Amino acid sequence: MADQQVPVRREEGQVLSREKTRLKRPPMYAVILLNDDYTPMEFVIWILQMVFYKDHAEATRLMLQVHHEGRGTAGIFTHDVARTKAVQVEQMARKHEHPLACVIEAVES
Ligand code: TYC
Predict the structure, then answer these.
(1) Ligand 1 lined by 71 (C-beta under 6 Å)
(2) Is residue 72 included in any domain, yes or no?
(3) Is residue 103 one of the residues assigned to a domain?
């Protein structure tokens, strides 16, 4: 059994492709914060630190970008993580009675 030979056919010019074993990147989603007129700036900064692990300077920069431009990307994640963070943002906002909203959008990779 052990020394039984298994014939291996090597055809001329055959190329073994690595293509099939390469892992495909998962689709990615941006969590986008939306501006409103009522949520306090400090609350948005706090959310960006708590949920998206931004430092205070980056959280402030991003909050001001959303304030001036209407929207801004808080982070890019796989679908499950993006959904979870969006739900966390809205739950924390509702708990504190702020209208802060966010959406998730597919990003091209
Ligand atoms: N525009 C809000 C204010 O003037 C601040 C704000 C920033 C709200 C970002 C939401 O996603 C937001 N208090």
Answers:
(1) no
(2) yes
(3) yes
Q: Residue 52's domain is classified under what CATH number? A: 3.30.1390.10
- From the alpha carbon of 33, which atom of ligand 1 is closest? 11
Structure token pair of residue 15 = 């190329």
Range of the domain at 73: 39-107
Residue 32 has pLDDT above 90, yes or no: yes
- Pocket probe mutation, ligand 1, options 49, 54, 63, 96, max atoms within 8 Å of Cβ: 63
Handedness of CA 54, 60, 61, 64 (dihedral sign): positive
Number of domains in the chain: 1
**Domain annotation covers residue 92:** yes
Mean pLDDT of 4-9: 47
Amino acid letter, residue 49? Q
With cut-offs at 50, 70 and 90, classify the pLDDT of residue 7. Answer: very low
Question: What does the pLDDT read at residue 2?
Answer: 42
| Sign of the C-alpha dihedral computed for residues 44, 45, 46 and 50 taken in this order | positive
Residue 23 in this model has a pLDDT that exceeds 80: yes
